[in-house]
């Protein structure tokens, strides 16, 4: 997505129940590595996927993360998927989505690598800034006696937003 709200929504889901900065750094780094590598490689080599399909998968990543935080996989299947691997995989998908969007523009190959690297650094700086705000707000929110109840509701809203994103993109695929 051009706006990046899907990216931020996924990151919210990633850090919601992470209380140690070390854990936040591990998960966000995995997501950033996946995101950066497929964005850079995708644009460099001209890999692109239909933007409606990849954006629907990105919506699915938000739903996945919300279900994970709600403990659905443990209840339904008796197993918890590896959250670190899932975060990396969905980082790869998010990066592919951004690469697909970038490829829709007529970009010159002259100076492509430095421009891609600069763009990626800007995206990651933006992510760090958004993450800083998220972590500050979450620190206050977690001190609330109602945090766990509200976090449950937040995950339901997050899952709904992921389904809306998926539905919008699937509809766009069939209408376009």
TrEMBL record:
<feature type="transmembrane region" description="Helical">
    <location>
        <begin position="7"/>
        <end position="29"/>
    </location>
</feature>
<feature type="transmembrane region" description="Helical">
    <location>
        <begin position="117"/>
        <end position="140"/>
    </location>
</feature>
<protein>
    <recommendedName>
        <fullName>HupE / UreJ protein</fullName>
    </recommendedName>
</protein>
<keyword id="KW-0812">Transmembrane</keyword>
<feature type="transmembrane region" description="Helical">
    <location>
        <begin position="85"/>
        <end position="105"/>
    </location>
</feature>
<keyword id="KW-0472">Membrane</keyword>
<feature type="transmembrane region" description="Helical">
    <location>
        <begin position="152"/>
        <end position="175"/>
    </location>
</feature>
<feature type="transmembrane region" description="Helical">
    <location>
        <begin position="41"/>
        <end position="64"/>
    </location>
</feature>
<dbReference type="InterPro" id="IPR032809">
    <property type="entry name" value="Put_HupE_UreJ"/>
</dbReference>
<keyword id="KW-1133">Transmembrane helix</keyword>
<dbReference type="Pfam" id="PF13795">
    <property type="entry name" value="HupE_UreJ_2"/>
</dbReference>
